[in-house]
Amino acid sequence: xxxxxxxxxxxxxxxxxxxxxxxxxxxxxxxxxxxxxxxxxxxxxxxxxxxxxxxxxxxxxxxxxxxxxxxxxxxxxxxxxxxxxxxxxxxxxxxxxxxxxxxxxxxxxxxxxxxxxxx
Length: 119
Description:
Elements (H helix, E strand, L loop, with lengths): L1 H13 L3 H14 L2 H4 L2 E5 L2 E5 L12 E4 L5 E4 L6 E5 L2 H10 L13 H6 L1
Antiparallel strand pairs: 1-2, 3-4, 4-5
Helix pairs in contact: 1-2, 2-4
């Protein structure tokens, strides 16, 4: 359900915003990847994030992707200060995220990151 809502929102915005178009391309490529499709997606400032829980606060244990103004993508994470790499395409960025997923990642569990820490 969250994937469908995210893709619908990005499609609405893509007609008028370049960053929305880039984020839509990322989301579509991520949805096609089974390892990412099982996670909970969200955007923040046009960055595409993936989390292992469905409620806020979200977990920060999965890399995320920033669209760059030159049409490229930067893969970071799981912390903001860690840059994994940059790619020329959405597919390249998605490949970097999949390669950096933590062991036994997914599917997203109901609840918040706080619930995961207690469990």
